[in-house]
Amino acid sequence: MAAGAAIEGQIDAAAPIPRLLTNAVERVREGLGTQTSAIGLIFLITITWTAFGIAGSGFLGSYNLYSIGQLAARDAVLGMAQAMLIVVARMNLAVGSIGAVCTSMLGYLLVSAGVPLWLAFLLVAAVGVLAALLMGAVELMTGLSSFIVTLAFLSAYAGGALLFTGGQQYQINSSLITRLGNGTLFSSAICPLVAVAVVCGVVCWLLYNRNSLGWKMLAVGANERAARASGVNVSRVVLAAYALSGLLCAVATVMNASYELNVNAGFGSDWLLPSFIAAVLGGVALTGGEISVTGILLAALFFDSLQSGLTIINVPSYWIELPEGLVLLVAVLLDRARRARRRTMRPRSLAGTPAPEPDPVAAQ
Amino acid sequence: MNRVLRTQWAPLLAATIIAGVVLSFSTKQFGSSFNVYTILQTASVYAVIGLSQMMVLAVADMSLAVGGIASLVTIATGNLYQVQHWPIGAAIAGSLALGLVCGLLNGVIIAMTKLSGFIVTLATGTAFTGIAYGITSSIPYSNIASVLTTLGQGRAAFFSYLVLPAIAMTLAVGAGFRWLPIGRSLLAVGGNRDAAVLSGLSQKRAIVTAHAVSGLLAAIAAVLYIGVLQSATPATGSDWLIISFAVPIIGGTALVGGEAPASGCFVAAIVLSAINDALIVLNVNTEAVQMAEGLLIFAAVIAGKLGQNVRTGTRRSRRPSTGPGRLGQIAQDSATPGLGMP
To answer: How many other C-beta atoms can be found within 10 angstroms of the C-beta atom of residue B193?
Structure first.
């Protein structure tokens, strides 16, 4: 290291002006680096909307935009539910099963038990949080990986929800819920659910940018041992992450129920993939310690625009599953490439002085 | 004998056999030769699915694409036989090769990008299933070759013919890990990546090999299942995710890699299949069966952890401790991690 610093000094002294220039360029590029996922996604959404707007009739019509917003809002909240645990270097395979449990609870409380709406919301949120907390507690007590714990609970919760309802359908008749999922906001192209997703996004942004709990979550995800050594109560932070993930699953459940209206315990079985696509495409690092709430919102919008566009240009419904897999694969590979590029830049910013290697041109 | 008793699945197997005997006395149906045949038939497919996952768990990776590969292979077999009119042998060979290629693709992507197998196989598995649904327009192929029917449905009293290929696969995988250099190198890489790489083994090669063989085994499971189901549908594999993890984990495969007890897979497959069957015979809801699977994974993993601690504890103290002393041993072991490990 000492030798490297000496060489650095020599080069700095020998060619200060070009070095300063490349340094400045690097600074700008690095600043963009954290935002590339958002900028890239806006670009992708523009392309998608333009292409489908030309190719498919009615894609940019208010009816279609409304339904894209409806779906994207739910997927964005699912992405945030998944991101809560990805940030602390864990994962939640049971998002859909917690959704199934919450859906059953919501249906039972509103239809069979006739509980007032506010109380039903409160209880459903509590059930979501408790279901997730239980997984967190089991993970911490047994020291198993979150993958295996949430996989086991995926099966247990889905089975439990079906057992509880006996496969019953619940027809939700609440004017507030109906207006939430099928009403309009400002214009006929915007579903009120979009506002719900944005509010969730703002709360998440505040959590990670303005709240010590959020910072601790990022610290635990980036390096659990270092976080523990610097006095973070890792268990409490992990439990909080699980609880928030469960709460967002409950929110997603209510959103889903508000436009489906006729619900059963089978809901949620296909939520795993959208939750990962929104999070990973949005730029949440799978290794933990990084979050981009804007990215998640945009990724959900892009994903559901693509799905809707494919339907509009008459791609048969049985071909729809293939692009889902491909989008996730491409997202993961792009994310990997971006990180690899950024890693080659990092020494500069950490050292404060420009390092002689790697060459910024070669690093691209 | 001692070695058998020490394995993680021994208590589970013993409990299952006892429960099975009790059940067969209390309900006539459970012990009937047809019911035992059904248990073995399901268990054989479960065993091969479990082996497929065990291959990747051995290198400390995982595959969520087992079901996706199975879906695509099922469609390929049906299509080649029914639409392209290939002889059944060629159709099966072609589909197995396809499974191998799918696994190879997963392995290459994971080895090249160094991403976790989880996210890559989540994506490719969905894509494989998507292709299968797209090609068939979700209409199953119903013309099934008599060979597959005989294999899947044939039986001699309670003995399902499917047990034969399942045992063959178990032995082959077990032998591969024990005697083949590549098998040993997979375990070495899975057990300690850095140490294996430092001693000259290729991590990339191990990961690619594990995923390729996993794809082949998923394909074999899919072909066997066509005969059981009497239909080649793209829906095959959609519910294999939990099974694929439950079987190897209950069979004693460590999630951290470096272990591949093939025989454990086979036993765990029988245990799982018997439990499912018992719950159905006892008229418990099918939903409860799903719950039971999740809880069983836990029971197995936690029992495995405790068992490991107890085993290492007895080895040190040279006497089997029971009662409160045993609990103390566990507490002591978990308090001093690393000491208990061999």
So the answer is: 18
Q: What are phi and psi of A106, to 5 degrees?
A: -60, -45
Q: For chain B, give every domain's residue range.
A: 2-284
Residue pairs spanning A and B at CB distance below 8 A: 125
Triad B173, B177, B181: Cα angle to 5° = 125
- The second-level CATH assignment, the architecture, of A42-49+56-335 is Orthogonal Bundle (1.10)
A91 in B contact zone (CB under 8 Å)? yes
What residues in B contact A324, CB-CB < 8 Å?
Answer: 126-127, 130
Interface predicted TM-score of the whole assembly (ipTM), two decimals: 0.77
Instruction: Report the pLDDT averaged over residues A67-74.
Output: 90
Element (H, E) at A263: strand A262-263
Cβ of residue B293 closer than 8 Å to a chain A Cβ: yes
The whole-number pLDDT of residue B268 equals: 87
Distance CA A116, CA A176 (A): 12
Q: What angle do CA A170, A172, A177 make, to 5 degrees?
A: 145
Tens digits of residue pLDDT in A146-170: 888 888 888 888 888 888 888 788 8
Among A164-168, A325-329, A344-348, A357-361, top mean pLDDT goes to: A325-329
* In chain A, where the domains are located: 42-49+56-335
Are residues A259 and A184 in contact, defined by beta-carbon separation less than 8 angstroms?
no
The predicted pLDDT at position A270 comes to: 86
Ranges in chain B, pLDDT < 50: 313-342
CA distance B129 to chain A (A): 7
Q: Identify the residue with better confidence: B134 or A352.
A: B134
Residue B104 DSSP SS3: helix
Going by C-alpha positions, the residue among A208, A209, A121, A102 that lies closest to residue A160 is A102
What tokens does A54 get?
């030309």
Closest residue by Cα to residue B57 from B157, B173, B136: B173
Between residues B180 and A1, which one has the greater pLDDT? B180
The CATH architecture assigned to B2-284 reads: Orthogonal Bundle (1.10)
